[in-house]
Amino acid sequence: MLTQRGSERAKLREIELVRGHEEIRESRSLRRTCYAELNRDARQFNTALNRHLHVMRERGSEGADSVALDEAKNAHRDRYSEAQMIAPDEVLMRASAVNKALNEVYGQVKRLERGAPGPGETTETVAQAQYEVWGMLRTMRTAMRHDLGVSRED
Question: What DSSP letter does each residue of the chain carry, written as one string?
């Protein structure tokens, strides 16, 4: 009887251990997918802002493709919302900084389009702010890779 109970306990511990490993693997897979999509969509949003600014400088606001810019913004918003639910604090802090910077640049672009820029906002200052987002994207990507165990560099 004691041998049977010991055997059952050992089997239960083994099942719990296997379940724990499966949960960890599923969590990592979910984060990996989310991170890849967030990284892609944030980069595409930043690229759309860059293109939009180039067109505004060359042809003015009328020639700019606001639909493409808004689609990129919406895709990023959706990915960021997903990351808010599954990313650990360190990654979320970096993603939040990127999200904030992208939305600030977007607001500046829209004010320039309307011909109502804020104090000190010019096409050049907005382009500089947009360019600085690339560094933030690299930092976010590094935090994501570190969380996934892909990169151990700090």
Answer: -HHHHHHHHHHHHHHHHHHHHHHHHHHHHHHHHHHHHHHHHHHHHHHHHHHHHHHHHHH-GGGS-HHHHHHHHHHHHHHHHHHHHHS-HHHHHHHHHHHHHHHHHHHHHHHHHHT-PPTT--HHHHHHHHHHHHHHHHHHHHHHHHHHTS----
